[in-house]
Amino acid sequence: MSTDVRRVYEKIVIYKTRTGFTKQYAQWIAEEIDCEIVDYRNISSFDFNGYDLIIYGGRVHAGKIDELGKIKKMFANSKYKLVVFATGATPFEAKEEIKKIMANNFDDNSIPNFYMQSGLCYEKMSLPDKTIMKALSKILSNKNNKSKIEEGTVNAINKSYDISDKKFIVPLIKCIENI
Q1: What is the pTM of this model?
Q2: Residue 34 DSSP label
Q3: Distance between CA atoms of 13 and 26, rounded to whole angstroms?
Q4: What is the pLDDT of residues 88-127, one digit of tens each?
Q5: What pLDDT digit, counting tens, does each position of 51-68 carry?
Q6: CA gap 65, 88 in Å, rounded
Q7: Is 54 exposed, middle or buried (0-12, 13-18, 19+ CB in 10 A)?
């Protein structure tokens, strides 16, 4: 008779948010796996001793996941297992675009990573980000012979919206359960 003895990992969720979408996903994940949660702004004073599974979430901005490079360096120590989720306004239907974004952020498959749709919140965006989004919208709106993706982008970035959904955390949760 054999018993399945699994190691219990001490987990924590760290998130970096600008408009609140990543924080919402971090809260859903922390609730689901019953663990602590910490805002990226507070990690310099946080003691990570005792944790060995770090779940990091950040928004996708200009093709990069916010502060991911610093997180990778910070937890490069082999004692930590790192899992990453990224939030963004790119819809799941744009599979190739999402693949490119994730490939730009991860050089190999050693870090499990997940993309979660979120949205846009112009009310909480910085002025430079608002300006860039509005300029992109205008450029694409004026373009002739738009591709389906360009047409969808124009429609998607004209105003604030939220397409976040707790169901998008399921693949990440399953991954953590299998660690």
Answers
A1: 0.85
A2: T
A3: 6
A4: 988 888 888 899 999 999 987 789 999 999 988 888 888 9
A5: 889 999 999 988 899 999
A6: 9
A7: buried
